[in-house]
Design brief:
The chain is mainly alpha-helical and 179 residues long. Among the domains are: 72 residues, Four Helix Bundle (Hemerythrin (Met), subunit A); 49 residues, no CATH class. Helix 3 runs antiparallel to helix 4.
Length: 179
């Protein structure tokens, strides 16, 4: 190909890439409507409103608690992910240091403990909003999600199985990489 043709192809490619990035950015940050809850969140909220018979004030209070809770938990989840990544970095090393491993395990445990405390605090705050009958129904729903049924244990077990398979595959790859 001639030099002129290659130059025009390069210019065209650069313009195409720039326009793609600008379009993506526009729809991601400028045009996005963050005021509307996601469909999954809206379904969750509607489900609780229907099942518990919430008043508008109760629904707003629960939504505020839920969003504040996720804002508090998000940095902890990031810390937890970081600590887990650091643990795997220690495990990848040729010579394993038991002290470093135990320190990382302790760090992960502390973050998980803090997350559990915040979860229970949030649960208790939700209960304080509800009337006694609503509270009973709320506890039923939450316990079924945690321990039984279609929305609870089955989904959690499937998630754990998928995570176990991924971790197992990752560890096999690490063993293959080590000389």
């Amino acid at each position: 190909m001639s030099r002129k043709t290659l130059t025009w192809l390069l210019v065209f490619s650069i313009l195409l890439n720039i326009s793609t990035v600008v379009t993506f950015s526009y729809f991601r940050w400028v045009k996005s409507d963050k005021s509307r809850p996601s469909p999954q969140r809206r379904d969750h909220r509607d489900y609780f409103n229907q099942q518990l018979g919430l008043t508008a004030a109760q629904a707003d209070s629960m939504e505020n608690l839920r969003s504040r809770f996720w804002q508090e938990i998000k940095p902890l989840r990031m810390q937890l992910d970081q600590a887990r990544q650091e643990l795997f970095q220690v495990l990848k090393q040729d010579s394993l240091d038991d002290q470093k491993i135990n320190l990382k395990i302790d760090e992960i445990s502390e973050i998980q403990k803090l997350m559990q405390r915040k979860t229970i605090e949030n649960f208790l705050q939700h209960q304080s909003i509800l009337a006694p009958e609503q509270n009973k129904k709320f506890i039923e729903i939450m316990s079924s999600r945690l321990f039984f049924g279609e929305h609870g244990r089955g989904r959690a077990e499937k998630y754990r199985e998928d995570r176990y398979k991924k971790v197992k595959n990752d560890s096999l790859k690490l063993k293959e990489e080590k000389p």
